[in-house]
Every structure is written in C-alpha cells, then in structure tokens.
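Reader question, answered in our methods column.
A reader sent in the components of a multi-part assembly and asked whether the whole thing could be modeled at once rather than chain by chain. We filled in our standard form and ran it. Here is what they sent:
COMPLEX SIZE: two components
ENTRIES:
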Amino acid sequence: MSKYHNFMQKPLSRREMLDICKGGFGSLALLSLLGPLPLSCGQSERSIINPSSNLNLGPHFLPKAKSIIFLYMDGGVSQVDSFDPKPRLTKENGEDPRKKFKVDATQFDNVGKILKSPWEFKQYGECGMPVSELFPHIATCVDDIALIRSMTSQFPEHTNANYFLHTGSGLQGRPSMGSWITYGLGSENKNIPGYVVLDGGLIPPGGLDNFKNGFLPASYQASILRAGPQPIANIKPKESIPNLQEQKLSFIKALDKKQLAEIGEVDAVESAISNYELAYKMQSSIPELTEFKEESKATKKLYGFESDDPHTRGYAAQCLLARRLVERGVRFIELTCPKVSADRWDQHGNLKDGHEKNAHAVDQPIAGLLKDLKSRGLLEETLVVWTGEFGRTPFAQGSNGRDHNPSACSMWMAGAGIKGGTIFGRTDEYGYRVIENEVSVHDLHATMMHLMGINHEHLTFRFGGRDIRLTDVHGHVIKDILA
Amino acid sequence: MELSILLNTGVTENPSDILIFFGRIHPLVVHFPIGFLILAALVEITTKWAKFQPLKNYIHYLWGLGSISALFAILFGYFLSLSGDYNENTVFLHKWSGVALFLFSSICYYISKRQIKLPFYGKSILILIIVFTVFYTGHLGGNLTHGSTYLFEYAPNSIRSLVGMPKKEIPRKKVTVLDSADVYLDLISPIMNNRCVSCHNQDKKKGDLDLTSYANLMKGGENGDVIIPNDTEASDFYRRITLPESHDDFMPSEGKKPLTKNEVLLIGWWINNNAPSNGYFSQLNPDKEIISKVKNILGLDKNSLFNKKVSPPKKEIIDSLSNQGFILNKLMKDNYYLEANFSLSEKSITPKGFETILQLKDQLIWLNLNHSNITDEYLMKIGQLENLIKLNVSRNNISDKGLMHLSDLQNLESLNLYETNVSDSLLTVIPKLINLKRLYLSGSKANDSIINELKKKNEKLRIIFD
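And here is the structure of the entire assembly that came back:
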C-alpha cells in the first residue's frame, strides 16, 4: 500500500495521464475537461487539473469575438497573384530583377526573371478592393474583409515559419495560439474540446507541434478532427451491446471511487473519473456534430458540396464543420489545407497550375462560410483569419515558380470587430518588401487576442522562471483595421 | 581657486556632448560620498566602545575616501548642470552644499590623520554637520531629478501640511454625463496633464512655460503670452500644436505622442470661446460637431452602461440558472456584466424556470437563445431585461406578437431574428430600438418592402437579409 501511495503522490506527467486514459478515447477525454466558465472561483471542472489556472479565466474586457476560425493557407500564397496587384511586374516581365532592386538570398537560390502575375485583377464591392481571378467567390465578400498587405515573417522556411505563425516562436515547443486562447477563456461546451484542428489532409511542416500546448496544461492542446465517417479514432464504442460499455465504465468508476476513499483526494484519480465520463459524452456529441443531416441543401450548395472538384467538396465539409463548432461554443478552430494534386500553396514551379488547384479547392467554401456566418448573425462574434506563413517572390524561381518571401505577405481578417473593406499596409512597386505599416506575426496575435477580449500583455504563464506570453515581449494591436 | 571659477561660470550655451556624458554619471558617483561619509560617522561613534578602539587608527582613510569621492561627485554634477534642464535655485543650493560637504570632510580627514584634538566637542559637532549636509544635499538632488513634490506625493495629509504642501488633490470624478463636464478642469487640463506637463512644470520649465495650472498657463513663456483668447492664430500654444510634426517648434517636442485631431479641435474651440478658466462645457453653446468630439474624448460615445459598476450576481441565482442549462460567462474583469447562453443546453426550459433570469436584469447584456424552443411568452420576460446589448432568438417559433414585447430594449445593438416568424411588427418595434446597429432577418417572414421601409427609417442600421 505504501508503495502505491508514493506513486499516487507524484504529480502526473502528461504521458502518464494519457496512459491512464488510454482506454480508447483517453486523450480526447482530457481535452473536454474544460467546463463552462465558472463565475465564482472554486469548483470548476478545470480546477481538477490545475487549481491555480482559473485565476486567468475569462476575458479582460468586453470581447468582440467569441470564436476564431483560422484558415491556414499552408505553403504560402503568392501576394502578387492574389490580393496585391503590381502592374510594374507586367511591364517589366522577363527582365533581370537584380538590375532593379537588391535580391535577398532565397531558399533555392534559383533566381529567375521578373514574373508577371498570370491572373487579372478586378475591383470588387463598395470598397473597390482588387482581387485576382484566383478567388472569384471570396471577392464577393470584400466588404466584410480587412486586408493586410504588409505582414512579414522572421523565417524564410516552412517549419520555422509555421512554428512562428502558430506559437509566436520559430522554435518547436511553445504553446500554440489556440492553446493560449483556450487557456485564457476556457471552453463553453462541456462535450467538445475548446481548440479543434480540422485536418483537411495536409498537416503543415513542423507537424503536430504547431498545435501543441507546450508548457501550458495538456488540456489546452488541439484535438484533431477529420471530416468523414470516423472523425476521431475510437469514437464509436467497441462493445456490441450498448449496456456493456456502460457497465464497464461504472465498474471502473466504482473502483476509482473506492481508491479515492482510501487515499484521500488525489487530482489524478479524480480527473481520470471525469475523463471517462466526458469521453462517454463525446460518443454522442461528436457524431451529432459531424453528421450534416439538419443542414439544408441550399446551405450545402453555398459551401460547395455540389462542386465537381472533390477537394472543394472536402474543404466545404471542413468549413461547414467549422461553423457548427462555432455554434457549439468552440473557441479556436483551425482548418488545414486539402491535399490537391499539386502540393500545398508552395509553388516553386508551375505556379499557374498549382495556385489554381489550391484556390479552386478553398475559394467557394470560404466564401460560403463567410456568407453563412453572416446571415446567421455568427460573423459578428466570430473572427475569421486567412493567412499563409509567408509570401512569395515577385521574380521567378526557375522559369515559372516563385520562391519563399518572408518580407511581404498578404493576409486578411473578417468578422467580429473588423472594419470591413479596409486595406492596411503597403509593399513596394514589385510587391517584394513592405514599405508601410509592417505587421508582424506578434501584431497579428495581439490583435486576435484583443478581439477575444484578452490583453496580450496580461495573459501569461510562469515557465522556466519567467512569466511568458504568446507575444513574448512584442506585439501591438492593429487598431486601424478595427471597427 | 580654479575650481570656483569653473563653478561660477554657470550654464554655458552649448556644453559639449562629452561633458554631458560625464554629467550623466553623476547619479552613480554621488552614492560613493554618501556611503563613505555615513560609514565614517558610524565608525566614529563605535570607537567609543573599547572593543572597536583599534579602528581609530584607520578612520582617516574613510574620511579621505569620502572627501575625494565628493570631489568627483561635484565635478560630474557640475557637468550635468550645464545642460540647463534643472531648476536654477535648487541647483545652486545643491551645488554649494555639495562643496561644503567636500570641505568639511577634508577637514575631518586632516584632523583624524593628525589626531588633532578640537576644543569643546568640536569634532562631534563637525561630524553632525557633515551627516546633516549629506542628507540635505541628497534630498536636493532627489528633488532635482524627481521633482520637488516627489517625496511627499503620497505622504498622509498631516505630513504634507508639516512641510507646507497643500492637501492631496482629490482626483476629479470621471465625467459620466456631458452636462457635468467642466470645460477647463475636465477637458483642457487633462489634455495638458497627459501630453505637456512632463516638460512644462515648476521644476522643469521648458521655454519658461508652466502648464500645471490655469494661472501659470496664462502667465505665458519666455516669448510672452501663449494663449490669446478668441484668437487662435495669435496663440503660440495653438500654433505649436497645429504645425507639421516635423517642424522644430512642434509641441509636444522630442517625438512625444502628439495630440489627437479631436484634442486639437477642442483646444481651438476653447480659445475661440474666450479660453475660460472654468464653467460647464454645455453652457458655452457648443455645436453638434464639437459635442460629438468631446463625447469621444470623454468616452461617452460608447454605451453609457459601462460607466457604471454593477453588483456581483447572487450565487444562488447563478447556480439555479446553471442547473437549468444556462452557461453564464463574465464578460470583463473589472465589472460584473454577463452573458447568458442557452443554445448549448441539452435540457429544455420552462417558462417558470426562465423567470429566474430576471434577477440578473442588471448584469445581463448578452443573451443567446438560439434554437432553444422558446415562444412569444418568453419574449415578454426578455423585454424586461433592459440592459441587453445583444439578443439572439434565432431559430425559434417566435411571431409578431412576441416581438412587440421587445420595444423597450433601449440598449440593444444587435438583434438576431434569423429563421423566426416575425414580419409586419418589425415596422413598429425596430424604429423604437434607438441604439440598434445590426438586425438579422434571413429566413424570417420579412419581405423586401418591409426591409426597405426599415432602411428608410434608420439609415445606419445594417440589416442582413438574404
């Protein structure tokens, strides 16, 4: 007994915790521990995991957004082919860029000629925002979109740039932005985790560490859902007789309770009990979520369920799922890209073919999402963020590709608290470098947090002897794009 | 002799950078004489005990160190004073008490070294004077860097009156209604306190201008009056805040954050209205434009609800609502405004149970009843939640009859009627919701003519209907 007692006294590591819960759906169960926000500090479900953590709970000031949908454009969309038209590229197409401006080292160091955009731009909406032919559907939503043409990254390579965009640090191991936000606000829904990644087929370079909790408690890591019949491993009970699972669970619970009575209140056992209970609930909440029975044909069509392109249909399902998660109070939803035949947005060659395939897969579903959110009144409390990890070069790599360019990237936000129809920031005449109102990834994070009612300087977690925040020691809220 | 010449030349026009650089080491160096001299005095006292007697032979080193370091402090301090940023009178006293300290400690060094006996407690008196001078000089130095009010700023009023300072100012109450705003005290003076006073106060009077009070402002600066009532063009104050930011004369200088457009506009308006020292803003016949600017500056254009503090909700009520399936969220740290969300509940709600929510009447500003099986009957209760800013009753079986109950929600900014059965009553109810900004009617029974009518009545209202 004393040996066992010793074992129980030891604080549980994440691994051990998962081990305990591995009876099928353990890790997911842990995620769903986040209960609704407690008004009075004290008996929240979360306090089981870390009693001190709920000091941070709740917004600092009246939020604009309750949820964020992060549309991640894996690989880096070319800004001069999407949202930042540069007539000078057309004029000087085929000329040597080194004679025009200083060319930084690029990843593949295969600098070709200045390359004009293969797509035409047209102005849309009341605001007259120019959008290229790549995004005819998103173009119809520009009056709800604030475009930033001046984002930069610190890293010219995918893995680091991904970590930077997702965690505010180019190195592996920091908590992801979704983890920070659920850590700050908790989740509204007892039956679904607060931070969800909808896997479209491409996990970004850098892998799952983009979505991890880092040093934050394990309950704040993302749980990854796939659109399809089996969105989460083992979500359907193995037992053929429904009663059997219930009996098993209640037997385990009885054993755990007995143990508790003997050794006193131990967090680990208490959480194990509630993990089982919540995972049990998810068996019904998750299938209910991922079946689109109650969605009308018109809604599905809006998203692109009737497209000929299977990737469009796939991304449409992700977007619709994202809306359903927002309705269920999930805080942070990231969509990764579908696996089209031409790789992610990373067109080092064959720009035209690759960008067209990628754009076709996401354009209609994203526009459908924005419109559906808007008519349901959800867009006013949901922030939609569309961005890659960096931009691409205005000159060719080889003959018909574009290399990575961390010095300029176009991204946009729409929804809660965003001033629609704004264009912020400016690049030079080639779209190569930012020359006005540079926006760093930290500024983006600060702004996202601000809209969720969080002061990014005040949401901290003590680790390694320092109070650490998502924006480290940087970050300014981009006031000019706020309504 | 040379030293005193150097000391008396006073502020030179353009001290070289290197002198200023050394000058800025002064704050570091001054702590050496303070430490050494106090230590020397302490050791002098302890040597009265037999046990410490042997120290007597070494005491002169301490006095020597004190006096040499005092000399360096004086030298660096002098360089610092060349920059001319400091109150002259205080600098004068500080300088000469520092010199006195150097002289006294040198004397002490000499008599300790030679073991000279002074008549009638001479040495003790000398040490006492040194200790006093250390404190006095140090205090003056503190006043120079931090301002003379620094030390007693937070002292209790009884101590403040002992040193001849006025009672602590009671900060003016935050203005919550425009009619109570005083034009100078609540509007003009806070602008200067935020942006100008750091350089224009009693101790640091750049351009010989003190902006801490109306009287001093009107005394003007080195070039005479800065405010000429009813004449913005002649007022140097106004000229300087309206110059291009890159201009040498632009205020605030040194790249400090400039005044906002609204602040500049307000100051111009104030000067053109005779630049009064007090009086209610609203009694000066402000026009609509300036009223809206002032509301913006005072933060009164935001929803006025947030100017008051609500009391925390009772725990029993929270518990009872939570048990019924409501999720209640606190929406900000410094107040108890709440959101109630029933849309995720697995249970259904009874009209009786729903009544509990009226007890959160003060706190509740967001209410989400999307797809919650509520009917017209419930809207009667909701109509009494007068602090509501956001109301979502989408996807419920709600008709015109129910909507009529909502006409009193004067704070409502967003109303979601997606997929409900409302139609004609919109024309009666919506125009009464004076603060309404967004209205969601997709999937309702409204039609184009109703929508157009609504748009005509309130052009600012955004109606989402497709």
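What stands out: The first helix of chain A runs from residue 2 to 9. Chain A has twelve helices and 18 strands.
Send us your own complexes using the same form.
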